[in-house]
């Protein structure tokens, strides 16, 4: 509320709040600007280029020999086109800037959704940044975080402010389903809000049952429209299969780190636990019954984060506004119960616009400094020399160069982490598998694990697919057995080994 008795102070405070927002978003941009390399980046770029060349989305697998010609539900086709065009025009700098921009955009939307003073919101944004940063990579996945934040904002305005913009949600889901397959996150959030209305109706004010029924009906209609909206897509009705295809791959947790449950011994993964405990703690301090939509959203998305670390980001997007709101309510309740506490006077002094010119100058200086550092970091981490150094560490760059100079007949068995890179850097050779887990499913991923871990029957898998060349990391267990099975080591460096076996005559 604007203080009419002191309009200058209110205006100064509003200006300070905006500067805090600018500062925090610049910090987010700085943290999100990183060398734009990811194991899935490359097959996204290859698919985007194929779509541009053919003039239609790539919906059939042409990158692997294990699924060659099979239908592929390419839910990220539009994002892949954007990535390919961006890489063509701006290279690694463009990709790096895009990730940092979308990370900052998602946090800006969260900030708008939050309640409380600017410093409280800034602190929670930083915490959410630490949680979500784990999944800020050069993939369409980051767009799902932005769109989830958009959904949260629209739903929050409807629930708590009476602003009905729910009609925007179906168009959002049309866009979402063409950018990334993470649209079920949005449906889950709408479902949590809808279920929360039911819970609040059962345990809340029974005299408002008609109003709640009208809200519930409205939400159910929007939920149904959003579910229908996702099929406005080149993949059509197949888009409804995405959640079941991904969840149905049982080997994901043991084969792919991002699908594994979090390891809280790792400091990078601990912010998720901190945030979860903070939300639970602030719920326990609330002086009122927790809104059904709030606790259901925290439970559902918190459970997702405990099952797979790739769900840290969605949890942060959903929980940050809830944490801010209940923290601010708890603090206000504490102030009301203890009006003489020193902490209140101290906070009032901090909040008071003392020396506004000095505060404005300091904030502008900090904003300029952080912005300058962010731009410098953006240019440094995207320099071709640095990217190349990282690329040589993460991917078999020199091994691929050797294969291109020494073409090998027969099928190539490759590392899961390198499948996408091979599709981009060595397109003339089909891969065994890449990061498209929904396409390969349990069958192919299980076979890959059997070979790499030297499980029972690994030789038969290689024979089945007529593999003559194996390209793997040197520390894969099967590399210790290949030589004894008639395979010849033809290339070796610190990153990769290549084994070759001639067909029996």
From TrEMBL:
The chain crosses the membrane at residues 90-111, 118-136, 216-234, 267-286, 362-380. Keywords: Membrane, Transmembrane, Transmembrane helix. It comes from the Bacteria. This is Glycosyltransferase RgtA/B/C/D-like domain-containing protein.
């Amino acid at each position: 509320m604007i203080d009419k008795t002191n309009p200058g102070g209110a205006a100064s405070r509003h200006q300070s709040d905006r500067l805090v927002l600018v500062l925090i978003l610049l910090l987010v941009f700085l943290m999100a600007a990183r060398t734009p390399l990811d194991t899935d980046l490359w097959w996204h770029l290859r698919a985007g280029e194929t779509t541009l060349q053919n003039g239609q989305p790539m919906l059939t697998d042409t990158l692997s020999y294990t699924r060659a010609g099979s239908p592929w539900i390419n839910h990220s086709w539009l994002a892949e086109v954007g990535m390919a065009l961006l890489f063509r025009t701006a290279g690694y700098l463009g990709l790096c800037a895009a990730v940092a921009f979308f990370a900052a955009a998602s946090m800006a939307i969260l900030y708008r959704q939050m309640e409380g003073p600017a410093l409280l919101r800034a602190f929670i944004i930083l915490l959410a940044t630490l949680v979500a940063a784990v999944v800020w990579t050069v993939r369409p996945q980051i767009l799902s975080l932005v769109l989830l934040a958009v959904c949260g904002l629209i739903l929050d305005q409807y629930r708590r402010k009476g602003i009905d913009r729910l009609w925007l949600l179906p168009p959002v889901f049309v866009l979402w389903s063409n950018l990334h397959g993470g649209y079920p996150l949005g449906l889950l959030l709408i479902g949590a809000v809808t279920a929360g209305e039911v819970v609040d109706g059962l345990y809340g004010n029974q005299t408002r049952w008609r109003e709640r029924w009208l809200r519930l009906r409205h939400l159910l209609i929007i939920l149904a429209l959003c579910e229908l909206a996702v099929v406005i897509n080149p993949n059509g009705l197949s888009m409804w299969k995405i959640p079941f295809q991904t969840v149905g791959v049982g080997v994901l947790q043991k084969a792919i780190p991002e699908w594994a449950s979090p390891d809280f011994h790792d400091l990078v993964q601990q912010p998720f636990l901190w945030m979860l405990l903070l939300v639970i703690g602030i719920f326990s301090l609330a002086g009122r019954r927790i809104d059904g939509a709030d606790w259901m959203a925290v439970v559902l998305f918190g459970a997702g984060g405990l099952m797979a670390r790739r769900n840290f980001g969605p949890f942060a997007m959903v929980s940050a506004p809830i944490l801010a709101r209940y923290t601010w309510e708890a603090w206000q309740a504490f102030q009301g119960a203890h009006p003489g506490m020193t902490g209140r006077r101290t906070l009032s002094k901090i909040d008071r616009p003392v020396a506004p010119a000095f505060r404005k100058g300091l904030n502008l200086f900090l904003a300029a400094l952080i912005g300058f550092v962010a731009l410098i970091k953006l240019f440094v981490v995207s320099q071709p020399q640095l990217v190349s150094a990282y690329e040589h560490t993460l991917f078999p760059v020199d091994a691929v160069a050797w294969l291109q100079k020494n073409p090998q007949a027969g099928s190539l068995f490759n590392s899961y982490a390198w499948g996408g890179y091979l599709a981009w850097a060595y397109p003339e050779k089909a891969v065994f598998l890449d990061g498209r887990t929904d396409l390969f499913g349990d069958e192919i991923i299980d076979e890959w694990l059997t070979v790499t871990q030297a499980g029972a029957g690994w030789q038969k898998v290689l024979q089945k697919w007529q593999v003559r060349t194996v390209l793997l990391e040197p520390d894969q267990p099967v590399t210790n057995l290949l030589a004894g099975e008639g395979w010849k080591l033809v290339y070796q460096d610190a990153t990769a080994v290549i084994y070759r076996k001639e067909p029996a005559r």
